[in-house]
Write a structure and sequence with these properties.
The chain is 30% helix and 30% strand. The N and C termini lie far apart (40 Å). The chain is α/β, with parallel strands linked by helices.
Length: 267
C-alpha cells in the first residue's frame, strides 16, 4: 500500500525557495530517516506531506488519494504525529491514561468518559513502551522523556498507517533518548505494518530497524535510498559541509568530525 507519493514537489515562501523538486515514494511499513542540517527543509517537507502547508508546485498523493480531492482531516487520522509541540499542548492536569486515550480521537484532553475497551487498549500501548504503571499519574508531573514516550502510545491509539516524528528527541538526555528510541523499536518489532518517518540531524538517534534514508541539502534531495549505503563518510561530509568519519559501534551510527575538516568556503 502506498503511504506517500511526492512528484517534483516545491515550496516557495515569501520569495524564498524552501523545497525544490522533491520526489519521494513511501510504502506501507517502511521505516525512513529524514536527515539534514538545520534549515535544510526537513520540517517544511513534513508539513507539506501532512497537509499543513500547501506545496507551491508538484503532485502529492497520500494513501492513494490525490492532494485536494479528499478530506485532509480524514487522511491525517492515518498519521501519528509526534513532536515537542504536541507535548507542550497536552493538558498537564490530565492522567496519562486519558492522555493516551485522547489520541484515538485526535483530541487534546478528554471530552467523554472512556469506555472499558479504550482503557484496555491504552494499557496495551503503555505496556509496549514499558509504562503500564503510569496510567494514573498526571501528564504534567512526568519528565520530558516520559512525556515523549507517552506520545508514542497516544499516537498508536488511532492505529495509524505511519508515525511521523519531527525531531522528537530534542532536549532529551542520553538515557531518556535511549528509552524513547527503544520504545519505537518495540513498536516497529511488534507492529511492522506501521511505517515511520523520523526527522533527525544526529546519526546516533538512528536505530538499526530503520532501512531507508532521505537526505536534504538546501531544500533538495542529496540522497535517497538504502540507509546502509547513504550513511557513508563521503555523503554525510557533503550533507553537513564538514569532513566527517562515520563509524558503527554496536550497530549504531556515530559521526565524528575530522580535525581541520571544514570544507572550502565555496560550500
Amino acid at each position: 500500500m502506498e503511504i506517500f507519493h511526492l512528484d517534483k514537489v516545491s515550496l516557495i515562501l515569501e520569495g524564498n525557495t524552501i523545497l525544490s523538486g522533491i520526489s519521494w515514494d513511501i510504502q506501507e511499513g517502511e521505516k525512513w530517516i529524514l536527515f539534514g542540517r538545520n534549515g535544510s527543509g526537513k520540517s517544511s517537507l513534513l508539513q507539506v506531506m501532512a497537509g499543513y502547508q500547501m506545496a507551491t508546485s508538484g503532485n502529492i498523493r497520500r494513501f492513494g488519494e490525490e492532494d485536494g480531492k479528499s478530506d485532509i482531516r480524514e487522511l491525517r487520522s492515518k498519521m501519528g504525529l509526534i513532536n515537542t509541540w504536541i507535548k507542550e499542548s497536552m493538558h498537564p492536569g490530565e492522567t496519562v491514561l486519558d492522555a493516551v486515550i485522547s489520541g484515538r480521537y485526535g483530541w487534546v484532553g478528554m471530552y467523554a468518559i472512556a469506555e472499558a475497551e479504550e482503557k484496555e487498549q491504552a494499557l496495551y500501548w503503555l505496556s509496549l513502551i514499558g509504562m503500564k504503571d503510569f496510567g494514573n499519574r498526571l501528564f504534567g508531573h512526568l519528565s520530558d522523556g516520559e512525556k515523549m514516550r507517552i506520545l508514542i502510545a497516544r499516537a498508536m491509539m488511532a492505529h495509524p498507517k505511519v508515525l511521523i516524528l519531527d525531531e522528537a528527541c530534542t532536549h532529551l538526555d542520553i538515557l531518556s533518548r535511549e528509552l524513547f528510541l527503544l520504545s519505537l523499536e518495540t513498536i516497529a518489532t511488534r507492529h511492522p505494518e506501521v511505517g515511520m518517518i523520523m526527522v533527525t540531524h544526529h546519526t546516533e538517534e538512528i536505530m538499526p530497524f530503520f532501512d531507508f534514508l532521505h537526505i536534504l541539502k538546501e531544500g533538495k534531495t542529496l540522497y535517497q535510498g538504502r540507509l546502509s549505503e547513504g550513511l557513508s563518510s563521503a555523503i554525510l561530509s557533503e550533507a553537513l559541509g564538514i569532513e566527517v568519519e562515520v563509524i558503527r559501534p554496536y550497530g549504531r551510527y556515530v559521526c565524528l568530525v575530522k580535525p581541520d575538516g571544514l570544507l572550502p568556503a565555496s560550500y
